[in-house]
């Protein structure tokens, strides 16, 4: 059996602490990365721009939110606002003539600063109260962006993104845009894969389980909660920049509403809290399931001569998000990543009866 733990004996701690201890896992990761690199040459432009590019960007955003919700155990219902802050800050800097690299870092820093300010509520409240605090952030940022012309130009205005370059490479056309988004996604993924092996990741795990118990054993919960909000918001600001530059090509106030935050929370919960792989699974399901569902509803309505209003069809994705969140919380709280891990553990010892739990 090519996928089995038998016969693998580690002689050093460094070998046992690898990100992918099994050889097949390393080969599988290399194959997936290779497929992602050659995808622009193998796929039609419609699939690249409409499906693969959004999936890469939203998976990166889900990874940033998963750091806060999955690793640190803090609820955040305003992550769309965090991405909007980064997008507007970076677009204004690019329009002012700053290099895109500086604008991206500045956008992430601006999002981290504001996100950390609202995240200070996590030092005094938790659970539902923290969720309400971050929800308040979402509505405050929405209001400020819409009603301050210096930021957005007005509630109905849109700021176009000028041509940019990344370390000397012009980001023009579908392939350069895709490779930029893929590069950011790979960097964030490697960061998330390694974070749990660091003292920072272990401290976040302690805060997630019991923050007062973490204080007893010497973990500074004040510091690590603020760091979790800072790092997560920084990633969100950078992804907002990539989304504005690589996909939307413009920014407007209606792009960063509460629906975006609900989408991201659904991606994290459905994919699996604290799972890097789950962020990719969850974003794929949340992005593509509504498309399939809308097509099925349209085909069903045409075949049965049913009259379904456009308003109802537009609200079907939100209904789906709610149903998916409730379903996974009831039947598989650890999400799609846990389902994949169960299948993987089964094949690790197949055809024997005893699997690692």
Uncertain stretches: none
Mean pLDDT: 84
Q: How large a portion of the residues is in β-strands, by DSSP E?
A: under 5%
Q: How many H/I helical runs?
A: 15
Report the C-alpha radius of gyration, rounded: 21 Å
CATH architecture: Orthogonal Bundle
Shape: globular
Structural class: mainly alpha
Widest beta sheet: strand line-up: 1-4
**CATH T-level topology:** ABC transporter involved in vitamin B12 uptake, BtuC
Biggest β-sheet strands, sense, barrel: 2 strands, antiparallel
Work out the helicity level. over 70%
Work out the count of structural domains.
1
* Helix and strand run: HHHHHHHEEEHHHHEHHHH
CATH class: Mainly Alpha
State the end-to-end CA separation.
20 Å
The overall strand count is 4
Task: Describe this structure in a few short sentences.
The chain is an all-alpha fold and 357 residues long. The chain has helices spanning 13-16, 23-42, 45-71, 79-95, 100-119, 128-147, 149-152, 174-195, 199-209, 211-216, 221-248, 258-271, 276-304, 310-331, 335-349, and strands at residues 159-160, 165-166, 169-170, 250-251. The chain starts with 12 loop residues before the first helix and ends in an 8-residue tail after the last helix.
């Amino acid at each position: 059996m090519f996928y089995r733990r038998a016969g693998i004996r580690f002689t050093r701690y460094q070998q046992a602490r690898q990100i992918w201890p099994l050889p097949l896992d390393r080969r599988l990761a290399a194959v997936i990365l290779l497929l992602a690199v050659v995808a622009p040459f193998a796929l039609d432009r419609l699939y690249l721009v409409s499906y693969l590019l959004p999936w890469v960007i939203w998976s990166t955003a889900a990874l940033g939110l998963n750091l806060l919700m999955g690793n640190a155990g803090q609820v955040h219902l305003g992550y769309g606002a965090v991405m909007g802050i980064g997008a507007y800050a970076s677009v204004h800097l690019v329009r002012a003539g700053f290099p895109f690299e500086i604008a991206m870092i500045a956008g992430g820093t601006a999002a981290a600063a504001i996100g950390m300010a609202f995240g200070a509520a996590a030092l005094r409240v938790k659970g539902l109260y923290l969720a309400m605090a971050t929800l308040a952030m979402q509505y405050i940022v929405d209001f400020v962006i819409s009603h301050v012309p210096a930021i957005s130009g007005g509630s109905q205005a849109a700021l176009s993104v000028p041509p940019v370059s990344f370390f000397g490479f012009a980001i023009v056309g579908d392939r350069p845009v895709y490779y930029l988004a893929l590069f950011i996604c790979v960097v964030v993924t490697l960061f998330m894969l390694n974070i749990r092996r660091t003292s920072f990741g272990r401290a976040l795990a302690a805060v997630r389980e019991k923050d007062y118990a973490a204080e007893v054993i010497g973990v500074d919960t004040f510091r690590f909660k603020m760091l979790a909000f800072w790092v997560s918001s920084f990633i969100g600001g950078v992804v907002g920049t990539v989304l504005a530059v690589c996909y939307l090509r413009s920014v407007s106030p209606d792009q960063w509403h509460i629906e975006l935050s609900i989408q991201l929370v659904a991606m994290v919960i459905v994919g699996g809290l604290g799972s890097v792989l789950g962020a990719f699974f969850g974003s794929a399901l949340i992005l593509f399931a509504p498309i399939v569902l809308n097509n099925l509803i349209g085909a069903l309505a045409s075949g049965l001569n049913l009259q379904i209003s456009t308003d109802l069809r537009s609200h079907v994705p939100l209904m789906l998000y709610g149903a998916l969140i409730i379903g996974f919380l009831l039947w598989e709280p650890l999400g799609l990543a846990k389902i994949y891990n169960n299948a993987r553990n089964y094949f690790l010892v197949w055809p024997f009866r005893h699997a690692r739990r």
